[in-house]
Amino acid sequence: CAFFCCISMAAYPAILKSGLIKIGIKHIDSKVRIYRPMYNGIIGASGLGKTWWLLHIARHAMRQGYDVLFFTGEQTKEELAIRFDASLLGLDSNLFYESFMHKELKRRLKQKYSKIQGKLTIIEFLPHVYTIGELEADLRRHCLGKRPPTVLCIDYIDVISYKEAGRRSMSEWSEQLHVCTMIRAMTYKNNLCTWVAGTLSTGSSEEQVIATRKNKGGAKNRVFDFDLLFTVNQSPEDELANRITIFQDKTRKQEGGWLYTIRPDFSRSRFCVKSLNVIKKAAVDAQIRKQEKLK
Fold first, then answer.
1. HSE-up (13 A, CA, CB side) for residue 47
2. Is residue 47 very low, low, confident or very high in pLDDT (cuts 50, 70, 90)?
3. Which of 102, 185, 204, 224 keeps 20 to 30 A from 133, CA to CA?
4. C-alpha span between 189 and 168 (Å, rounded)
5. Radius of gyration (Cα) for the chain, nearest Å?
6. ω into residue 130 within 30 of 0, thus cis?
7. 134-174 pLDDT, tens per residue?
């Protein structure tokens, strides 16, 4: 019995030391276990709110007392900071930008930050020029003399290069696969909970396509190494109804097959879940088989 207990304790993951890191949506948190180290992905076409998802995850991680390091190549750090502050107050980021110097707004923002134990650090980089080596160097530089971050967010992975311009000798998909492999290695080496956002062609515009590892094309390589993967989809019908469909893929660490239908509220700079429908795995598998027959 003692021998069995020793083996069991040795096999426990880092969750014993670091605790669970919740996303902040009850229905999703009940089905996933997020801890350190984990390499997680949010994949979807442009304009479906992947950056908002990263901000949502960062905000709830900070509320749990975790420090967040956010790399952005899509926006300036000032623009991202404004969106984050607007999300704290539940305001439209455009309206927030116009009135952020108002004394009452500053008071409310200061009050919100006083209740948050975690810290947010934003690092801006140049898209398609920034390399994975520079990202690793910036991560080491950030950790010098400071408490290392718990959560690492990267927005987004497609614009990070494996080598400097002029020294590339591989295809785009091979380069992205190498970048993903390097970020995963950094995640485990530094004991981080990493979230990366990326784009993915959703195929036919006539019908919603659920992106999984079974999808053909070079993008499938980018999902092989994720510990937790969400794919964001929106069919024409979803767009008219102002809803987004999120599919949780099965990985080595997480059970998959869950389909979440979420109605976000971008006017408040939040993913406020107005309705959330969860479809069981069997229904999702049937939809995937239907999509594969259409190809």
1. 6
2. confident
3. 224
4. 26
5. 20
6. no
7. 999 999 999 888 888 999 999 988 899 988 655 656 777 77
Per-residue model confidence as pLDDT tens digits over 56-76: 999 999 999 999 999 999 889
Across the chain, mean pLDDT equals 78
Bridge partner list, 69: 121, 152
Amino acid code (one letter) for 20: L
Helix (H, G, I), strand (E, B) or coil at 84: helix
Instruction: Give the side-chain half-sphere CA count within 13 A for 157.
Output: 34
* pLDDT value of position 283: 64
Residue 28: both structure tokens together: 């999703």
Whether the CA torsion 207, 211, 213, 216 is positive or negative: it is positive
Cβ atoms of residues 198 and 158 within 8 Å:
yes
254 contacts 32 by C-beta, under 8 angstroms: yes
Q: Which of the pair, 271 or 243, is modelled with greater confidence?
A: 243
Residue 148: what residue type?
P
Asked whether 33 and 87 are in contact (CB, 8 A), the reply is no
How many angstroms separate the CA atoms of 190 and 193, rounded? 9
H or E stretch at 17: helix 15-18
Task: Annotate 101-121 with b (16+ C-beta within 10 A) or e (fewer).
Answer: eeeebeeebeeeeeeeebebe
Name which of 71, 191, 72, 60 is nearest 117 in CA terms.
60
Q: List alpha helices for 206-280, DSSP H.
A: 236-240
